[in-house]
Amino acid sequence: MIHTKESFYIVQLKEKLEDKIGIKILQFHDCRIFSELLIKEKINISAHTLARFYGILKKEHKPYVSTLNMLAEFLGYESFAVFSAKIDAASIQLLSNPNCFLTGEFSYTALELAIHNNDYKSVQLILEQYDYKNSLEKNDVAAFLGNAVRVHDQKEQFLKALIEIDNGQVLFYESFVDEDDPGNYYSEALANYYIKYKKDEPSLLFKTCFQNAKKIYQNKKCTKADLDFIQNFSYNLYQLHFHQVSRLFELKILISEKQKKSLLHTVRLVEELLAILPAYSTDEQRWFLSRAIKALAFTKRLTYVLQNKAFKEKIIQYYFKTTGKVGAVADLIIQLTCHIIVDESYKLFPLQKIKTNPINETNTRVTVESATAYLYAKEPVKQIIDKNLQSFAQQTGNSWIMNLLELKNY
Length: 410
Prior knowledge:
Layout: H1 5-21, H2 28-40, H3 47-53, H4 65-74, H5 80-95, H6 107-116, H7 120-128, H8 138-151, H9 155-163, H10 166-174, H11 185-197, H12 201-217, H13 224-232, H14 242-258, H15 263-276, H16 282-298, H17 302-305, H18 309-321, H19 329-341, H20 362-376, H21 381-395, H22 400-405
């Protein structure tokens, strides 16, 4: 992606148009609705033009100035140039006063402009002023930052700038956690940057678990040093972050099968997991359960472990606690599992689309939602999903989903 000021202003224009009409433009049908709204305001822009503008058709197409002017006028500006100048003025003002971060309409704009201009000193300055410990928007900021890293054309410099400050380490490396890891950039960043700054054992555990679980899901070999570190890790689990502990259990389950340990050994790991669960909140527990399900499905040990009534009941109990609301990929995994393992005596809540947009787990979300849809789809849709799901799951390191589907009516 080419990062220019013009592209930055166009991104801002797109977002403000969506805010005004109350529609997220994701498909051609949305463009048709938007075009009809514009026509009512006597602004003649076709659905096809809007589809090109939003990248639904011909993603590399550069919008005509006349189109940009009409869209800016729809927002109440004299022209696109005036709109851009207003954005610039507000952004520069906030960059000179980083304490305004997250307090005004152009808060994210200030950070985004600095990112687009590769002004990493300003990026660091803004992020360091953000008190994530007393903010309800931490996850939103992490997602915003993570997506910016993903699409950046100078990723290495950006990653270096983030690792140099505490908030960069927390908000990107530890909170965004790019599960899709396109091109292995996140795995490499953990090894090249993160662990050189964070030299404590819990951070090394985080890195080791992320990298090696990914390797196993992709049928790649782990180093003996990493396996030995996991087996000999003796840190007090109650002093660790829930993501670190849940990943540790996930990797231990994967290693258990890799090292040809007995099924009883895996059951004991799950019993240890169940014993520690009460120490964590309901939202945190979903990560323990979903990661265990993934690992058990991948190793084809889930059927056996589900004979442990406590484990099966815990999965179902968590699902009922959500009252059908899905807020993370972990919820989707548990939802799918419940729809596979329970019988009709359970009154399951309706299937729900994911409420958030976890771009760090896009591949897993698409795979799990497709598998859930497959359970209830009719021909020819069922055949289409069947044709594409297996190859997509294999390509993205989510082949465990196919094993999970085999449990239907187990």
